[in-house]
Amino acid sequence: MASKKRGPYDGTSRTSKWRKLEKEEEHESNVDEIAGPETIDDLTDCIDEVPNEYDILVEEMLEEEKQKLDQKSSDNQSDIENQPLYQGSRLTCFLSIEKDAKCETCPNCSSKSIRYFITIPLKDQMETILKRPGVLDMIRKSKIERSELGNTSTIEDVYNGNVYQSHFDISGFFHGTTLEERKHQLHLSFQINTDGVAVFKSSKFGVWPVYAVINELPPDARFTRENRIFLGLWFGTQKPNMKLLFGSFLKEFNLLFTGIPMSIKEEQLTVKAVLLSSTADAPARCLMMDFVQFNGKYGCPCCLSPGETFAISATGNSHIYPYKSESNEGHDKLRTKEETKATAHRVETEYLSGRRRDPVPEMGVKGISFLMSFPKFDLIKDDLREPVMYIDIDERKKQVAFFPNLIEKD
Q1: How far apart are CA 241 and CA 69, in angstroms?
Q2: Spans of biased composition, class Basic and acidic residues (predicted)?
């Protein structure tokens, strides 16, 4: 899969270039490969002439991240900005290929639809955040305050949840950490998130940024721009190959779990961290978990109910999961990490053995999710359900249905 240098930066209109690329990919033209942006600078340049309603949304987001990365690059003496975007083959290829390199694993790959992504070193960004004045003290103060309060039944933050407490003791260290180790170690946890943003109004081109936040920071500092970790960005006409995108920084998460030495405020610390949770809207969550869509058979990520199709109008149907009166809990058997992993391996084995042309979902599971590879991560319990999508929006629909006179009609 040799890459030809046909980069779209030859002085012509950027917007027309991207629309031309979109047309070439969509109609499977005879062009061997379609060149894409090579750096974040290139990506922001490409979007300079996006239609107005998307210009602000996408360009500002990328420009903010570029400025953030420029600063981190300067702080860490690492050339983050000029790292190449990797090219991924079709769904069955999980390799990252350098620009102008040939993929020896899948030389017969017929895919003309190339997607691009960048990944930013996690360690460098963490070090930059922890070196910022007051951040390390803020984290330690928060841990001390929680330790003094002791265990409480009040749910105030992520620390009070069962998942957090299954990893960390009351002092904010991993269970089993010795007193000597606590003197020179710092233990943290992450929450990751991703979602897609369309670049053009009538286009399949989109970007998928991947973010992480440090849970041990207080809520008012946790989600601020300067403390948000930008893990990577996917760009292309198709939804991300999650195995390829997230697999690119899985190694760093594994290293952090065992411990990475960092020099912070003249202290030599071993920083350990674990991925505590992931959150996304319903469609993105299905991609991350490698499940069927939420509106399909066995689409519930929590239990093994197949659901049923319910007619909501003369022409429309909806897939619902009705209350199960014969069950004490009101639902089918809950999914477990172990059973889901075993099911995923069966599906992948059937597909890779050549017995099936495409993966056939079993109980809603389409294959092995990258989340299964993160240390201590429970795919079922640790993937959070977004309340805005499941509660707030649904309640607004009900209110509109009950109060139709509130809607102005043309």
Answers
A1: 24
A2: 19-30
